[in-house]
């Protein structure tokens, strides 16, 4: 591999730009994404319903970023899929499509998240101030495999 090839490979792996053909061709195996352009009226339950309509059981982490002052989302969420194949189907079904509520003109976009993987996401958020907020605003964690795949793994007690 020459230096240009190494640079191109490093650039593509460090880039947040999502290209489904790279996943299809097994050139990119990342599974954690930022879902962008979410209409601000969506709450986490609506987002889960939207994802589950076509992809229930294919992800193990979901977090819709909320502005705690106005209790509206800020337009993006993080999702971790259990495998790269699930990424392909989700992208084909959702990327570039209009959102199905609130007559929004926003188009769903995907980008790779900087933090990759369920364990890394849990570590990032476990001591975050979001864990002191209402349960509805906290990340959702699901079983990744087995008979309970897709079921909520962590149930929070409301402490606020």
From TrEMBL:
<dbReference type="GO" id="GO:0003723">
    <property type="term" value="F:RNA binding"/>
</dbReference>
<dbReference type="Pfam" id="PF04059">
    <property type="entry name" value="RRM_2"/>
</dbReference>
<dbReference type="InterPro" id="IPR035979">
    <property type="entry name" value="RBD_domain_sf"/>
</dbReference>
<keyword id="KW-0694">RNA-binding</keyword>
<dbReference type="InterPro" id="IPR007201">
    <property type="entry name" value="Mei2-like_Rrm_C"/>
</dbReference>
<protein>
    <submittedName>
        <fullName>RNA recognition motif 2-domain-containing protein</fullName>
    </submittedName>
</protein>
<dbReference type="InterPro" id="IPR034862">
    <property type="entry name" value="Fungal_Mei2-like_RRM3"/>
</dbReference>
<feature type="domain" description="Mei2-like C-terminal RNA recognition motif">
    <location>
        <begin position="30"/>
        <end position="126"/>
    </location>
</feature>
């Amino acid at each position: 591999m020459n230096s240009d090839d190494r640079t191109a490979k490093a650039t593509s792996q460090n880039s947040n730009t999502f290209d489904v053909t790279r996943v299809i061709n097994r050139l990119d195996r990342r599974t954690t994404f930022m879902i962008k352009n979410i209409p601000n009226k969506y709450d986490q339950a609506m987002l889960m319903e939207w994802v589950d309509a076509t992809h229930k059981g294919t992800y193990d982490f979901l977090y819709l970023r909320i502005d705690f002052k106005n209790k509206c989302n800020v337009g993006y969420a993080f999702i971790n899929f259990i495998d790269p194949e699930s990424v392909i189907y989700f992208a084909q079904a959702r990327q570039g499509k209009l959102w199905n509520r609130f007559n929004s003109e926003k188009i769903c976009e995907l980008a790779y998240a900087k933090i990759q993987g369920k364990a890394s996401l849990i570590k990032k958020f476990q001591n975050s101030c979001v864990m002191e907020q209402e349960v509805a605003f906290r990340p959702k964690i699901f079983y990744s495999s087995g008979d309970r795949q897709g079921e909520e793994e962590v149930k929070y007690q409301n402490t606020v």
